[in-house]
Design a protein that fits this description.
Strand order of the largest sheet: 1-2-4-3-5-6-7-8
CATH topology: Rossmann fold
CATH superfamily: Alpha/Beta hydrolase fold, catalytic domain
Radius of gyration: 17 Å
Distance between the termini: 34 Å
Largest sheet: 8 strands, mixed
Mean pLDDT: 96
Order of helices and strands: EEEHEHEHEHHHHHHHEHEHH
CATH architecture: 3-Layer(aba) Sandwich
Number of strands: 8
Helix content: 40-55%
Length: 298
Amino acid sequence: MPDPVDLFPGFASRTVSTEGARIFARVGGEGPPLLLVHGFPETSAQWHRIAPKLAERFTVVVPDLRGYGWSSAPASRDGDGYTKRAMGADLVALMDDLGFARFRFVGHDRGARVGYRLALDQPGRIERLALLDIVPTVDVWRSREADPDVSPHWPWLARPAPEPERAIGADPISYFEGLLAKWSGAKDLSPFAPDALALYRASWNEPSRIHAMCEDYRAGAAQDVDADRADEAAGRTIACPVLVVASRHYLVKAGKPAPVEVWRSRLAPDARGVETDTGHFMAEEDPDATLAALTAFL
């Protein structure tokens, strides 16, 4: 397996103990602190094409979420250990350890869900929030009520253990590579660097991490959506500036409201939006466009 620093020249490795987990991160650059948080089913390696450029202007911190990559995979049942609130607390502990009380946050997919939950729970922590290719968790489930074919992996991964774990564990590489290909604009693995794929495969092959990813989705079906509903009922919204980056070949749907409009109607009334001509994995599929969108905002 490649050394974890190979894809991030000049970055140092750091491991920090949090409440219930050990979080691995890469740190590089100088300037205001910027947190880059990956999504499912990848690891922090997904940022390798843009993190070095961002490090020219920022102190860039690139962690693996608990249960992913090089971070620990705490035991969990019914999603309790993998709520976005718990994952957000990990990242606060990491940034506190590095000396950063406030920071900019860029999150993709599950990482974006951690970011907006943290922005709602601890509004003083995040200065600017970029959400890559998601709508609020509560809206995913509302969309499924109208159309059960929307995001079928959400309810399947959230099924009680060990059903999805056993099914995925029979051939995890094929399962997760199938998702990468399906959700990319190219519909194959061509957007992904071989060294990054090697790191993803190493994580996918570990049963405790397969369980952790399922627990992540179990939390999304219960605790996370409940937190969204509570915020809606209380009228809470995200206080910091928000950028919504949406992919034209994955998240944007004909005849449906633009993702930024969904955010404006729910939890981020002042959000601004931009689209990329990519599939779901925009930081790897078109790093130049993704970098341009982020630097203009950050």
